[in-house]
Amino acid sequence: MNQPIKRAFLDTEDGQILYRIGGEGEPLLLLHMNPRSSDEYRELMAILVNKYRVIAMDMMGFGDSDKPPRMYTIADYAKTVITLLDELGIQTTSILGHHFGGFIAAEVAVTYPKRVDKIILCNIAGFGEQGKAELSKRFAKGFKIKEDGSHLIERWLARAHYAGSAELNHRWVLDDLKCFNYPLYALWAVGDYCLDVVERFSYIKCPTLMLWGLHDVEQFEKLGLAKAKDRLFITKAIPHCQVIDIPGGTICMMNQIPEEISKIVIDFLEHTCV
Prior knowledge:
Number of strands: 8
Number of domains: 1
Helix content: 40-55%
Strand content: 15-25%
């Protein structure tokens, strides 16, 4: 029998944060990618909630959380994670972060090492100079709300070819529109963080797992954001990091293959020594 998952809000000095929570046992925090929300983990939570106390939050500016009053850095996002953990009375937790959420998970492990048991980093790209330039270009361009509504179909078509279903793409577009234009600020935060990401990641001492969806790696290279070979910077920065490649894994893999990912997550959490 599946455990119920509830939604709640946390008041912070910069606005409200929505989070989902359910289950009992050791805590596991899930941090979503840009431009998604905690909805990214709807399928995965339904599985993991039967073994862990699972929490998934909408980062500030995304989903049903408030837009922050200033441009947040990755360090700011990490601080909001600690604020939520404090509110829930959680002293230590394991964290899974995907893309944008992975950078936040890593920063929490670096800045607040005593609060993190293990981390799972998913599809974290190794942005080179070309990738950083492309991020800056996208940040400068911005998104525009158009009088004829054509921006809506543009967002629909942006991922339709790999979402796998109209229903999942619909969920993505809803998240996209909730934070419309804000994802560019998150790109700025990631780009800024990547200026010294290897050094920052070298401070991670807790057990670490890196998950790679190989289709996602290919897409990043096609978009000019990151070369596939550069993804291995993770193992250089974190020598003790375990790496698992998922053939065919896409940017949507948390929704598309939750059973496969949950087995990997559980195995890592249950059998990796701290």
